[in-house]
Design a protein that fits this description.
Strand order of the largest sheet: 1-9-8-6-5-4-3-2
Bound molecules: flavin mononucleotide
Strand content: 5-15%
Number of domains: 2
Helix content: 40-55%
Largest sheet: 8 strands, parallel
Order of helices and strands: HEHEHEHEHEHEEHEHEHHEEHHHH
Number of helices: 14
Distance between the termini: 28 Å
CATH architecture of the largest domain: Alpha-Beta Barrel
Shape: globular
Radius of gyration: 19 Å
């Protein structure tokens, strides 16, 4: 399947593994890229040398393109933006903000820049500043979220910009992929489904929590201070929400989640840690290799998009 995104990024399948904090390290990113999609290393809040090391480790595992997600709120974002150029990374996605200040440097180095956006206004602005594509991320996603749903956001951004749009948030199988393409997307980005990949280093408890999740198991915390995060309900989200409702300060709430994603991903504390995952967790029932995940999604999507399957509906 060829789209402007497969051409732009030099990949076989229009599928991107989201750059997830703590989860998206070299092993997972390289496995996804080896399977013909695009793997991303999640820069998150990691120091520049940690990100450099992950880039080098990924290069040892695959010759295919691997990108980096730069979390713009990170205190190390400036240094990480240089590491990307120094290590010859050619694809960058950016999260949690506006990457304008790095745009010229990256474009001069031939880096394809793909900001993650949650509104039409930011998508248009990114296009004006030279972005090569955007990820339109709906609030079904795991992690930091906006307010629009994928279903409403993707077609509005597709209509508003000329550059290709990648849909993210709530996509977990070939049906989600096909739906995103019907909305005008030219690729999809998935996070939650790849957290449970066999190559993912995520703790087994975290994977099991996703595999056992029901449709209504996620909760959003942090709306009160403007940084909402979607994760699976547990003791931590319960306590957080209680404090939020009681009017706790940003600092008090921050204390509750300090290091909590790491505690869940690395140590397997799924009770008091932050189990970031999207609403699609309820659909994900098995741990598979990245290759199996991608091949299964592509074959299902191809079947749906190429056939008259949808015409069999009762509207005929
Ligand atoms: C555990 C986890 C950590 C994430 N961390 C980041 C991050 O550091 N930067 C970012 O841009 N997106 C992050 N995301 C969002 C993903 O990259 C992706 O866009 C999102 O998961 C897509 O929605 P889905 O979970 O419904 O597939 C994270 C998602 C998860 C599940």
């Amino acid at each position: 399947m060829k789209t402007r995104i497969t051409e732009l990024l030099g990949i076989k399948y229009p599928v991107i593994q989201g750059g997830m904090a703590w989860v998206a390290e070299a092993n997972l990113a390289a496995a996804v890229s080896e399977a013909g999609a695009l793997g991303l290393i999640g820069g998150a809040n990691a120091p520049a040398e940690v990100v450099r090391n992950e880039i080098r480790r990924a290069k040892l595992r695959t010759d295919k393109p691997v990108g980096v997600n730069v979390m713009l709120l990170s205190p190390h974002a400036d240094e990480v933006s240089d590491v990307i150029v120094e290590e010859g990374v050619k694809i960058v996605t950016t999260g949690a903000g506006n990457p304008e200040k790095y745009m010229n440097k990256w474009k001069r180095a031939g880096v394809k820049v793909i900001p993650v956006v949650a509104s039409v206004a930011l998508a248009k602005r990114m296009e004006r500043y030279g972005a090569d594509a955007v990820v339109a991320e709906g609030m079904e996603s795991g992690g930091h979220i906006g307010e629009q749903t994928t279903m409403t956001l993707v077609p509005q951004i597709v209509d508003a910009v000329e550059i290709p749009v990648i849909a993210a948030g709530g996509i977990g199988d070939g049906r989600g992929f096909a739906a995103a393409f019907m909305l005008g997307a030219e690729a999809v980005q998935m996070g939650t489904r790849f957290v449970v990949a066999k190559e993912s280093i995520c703790h087994e408890n975290y994977k099991q929590r996703i595999l056992n999740a029901k449709d209504i198991d996620s909760a959003v915390t942090g709306r009160s201070h403007g940084h909402p995060i979607r994760s699976l309900r547990n003791q931590m989200t319960k306590e957080y929400r209680k404090k939020e409702e009681a009017g706790a300060s940003f600092e008090e709430l921050e204390l509750l989640t300090l290091g909590s994603l790491r505690n869940a991903v690395v140590d397997g504390d799924v009770k008091n840690g932050t189990v970031m995952a999207g609403q699609i967790a309820g659909l994900i029932k098995k741990e598979q290799t990245c290759n199996e995940i991608i091949e299964e999604i592509m074959s299902e999507a191809n079947r749906l998009l190429k056939t008259d399957y949808w015409k069999g509906s009762s509207y005929e």
